[in-house]
Amino acid sequence: MGMTARLLPLVLTATALVPQQPSNDPSYQEIPLDGVSVRSLTEPYGMVGITWPEGVRNVTAKVRVQQNGKWTDWQSLPVEDDHGPDVSDTEGIQRAGTEPLWVGNATGVQASAISDSGTPVSGAKVVLIQPGVLSSDADEPDDVGVTSTASPYPMPLMVSRRRWGADERLRTYNGASCARPKYTTTVLGAFVHHTADRNDYTRTQVAAMVRAMYAYHVKSRGWCDLGYNFLVDRFGRIFEGRAGGAQLPVLGAHTASYNANSFGVAVIGNFDKTTPPAAMLESTARVLAWKLDANYRSPSATIRLDGKSLHTVSGHRDTKATDCPGAQLYDKLGWLRQRVNALMGGSFATPIYRYARKLGFRNIGQPFWGEHPTRTGRATYFATRDVFYSVATGPHSTAGAFRTRYRRLGAGSARLGLPTTEAYQVHGGVRQKFQRGWLVWDRRVRQVQVVYGRAL
């Protein structure tokens, strides 16, 4: 009674009873929290959050929801003002806000957002998202990888964006420029987060939770896409997050000024007081091992990002004062580093890595597309060279105009096959031999030509 009376001038109330039936159709509602009691008809929804204009700090946000005709207790929503893109990398019209809360299926909401002075936050909104139900919500991860102890550690099974139902049209919501993914230079390290959500969700709810989070990040917070690069549920399933290619160094919106040259893995749930399940920790280790091993990064090393020295595998709270990723998960980071190191075999030993060291990383730059299988072998794309390997050819690289031409042919699976030499000078030009032909640069025509056949 005291809580309700004290918050009444600041509360939005949506108490109209609506038949509580799960909806197959997605919906999105933003209702102003304007400091007076408001009554609004509320369709069934699955996720709730509160937002306000960027720049307002020290906000206390609370909600309670109506489920099955009864009101839950008031619950504080975590406010994470350091999630999201760097301020220098604006994605749409950004708004500050809480972490979204999954409520499953609710028909009413009461919410408040007050400043540290006890006054209503001007321009605050409560966001209600119904992600709908898809026939694919019960599907398991796509067969895009395998789990083993091979070197480098392979891509684990993953629920793709297509499989969890990402509406790719949503990426133009904050402008056409958002439709094109942005990439950073390389992968140096990873940040572990928790979504600060509930821990009692079911297997079939997770895809809907990810869709709702995607809508919240884009429509409510003003970002270009889902903020995290990867998500892991309590059952150990890995979900592809931000678009742009899971294998590539996609610039995420997870740790503000530390997004460049890192990737964010969010475990779905709240781990302030709850220990993350073993399956969740193991899958988190697997996605970390895959990305770090492909880019030749040791989980036991330290790196430097935005002028700060950090572990290769860090928690969000290592960058600022925040509860994320929760005390119980943060305490597991040491175990995660050890487990990742074990999965990676403790060292880098691939022929491509050894060849890259021979060429010199100062000469070829850092990995952009980490080591990955091609149709006929393996490849790593560095800043200035692409290095290929197969048992039949050994390691060789392409560079400059030859790299550009070979990529256009379908590098790694072209009719030419893999390179069997480096490019070398001959009278009148430069040539490079491949398994089933040559690339030739002739000074007279000043372009790279493709010649098929073994003799030249």
Automatic annotation (TrEMBL):
Domain Peptidoglycan recognition protein family intervals: 156-320
Entry similarity comment: Belongs to the N-acetylmuramoyl-L-alanine amidase 2 family.
Superkingdom: Bacteria
Species name: Kribbella karoonensis
The protein's name: LGFP repeat-containing protein
Domain spans labelled N-acetylmuramoyl-L-alanine amidase: 176-326
Classification via SMART domains: Ami_2, PGRP
Family annotation (PANTHER family): PEPTIDOGLYCAN RECOGNITION PROTEIN, PEPTIDOGLYCAN-RECOGNITION PROTEIN LC-RELATED
Coiled-coil region: none
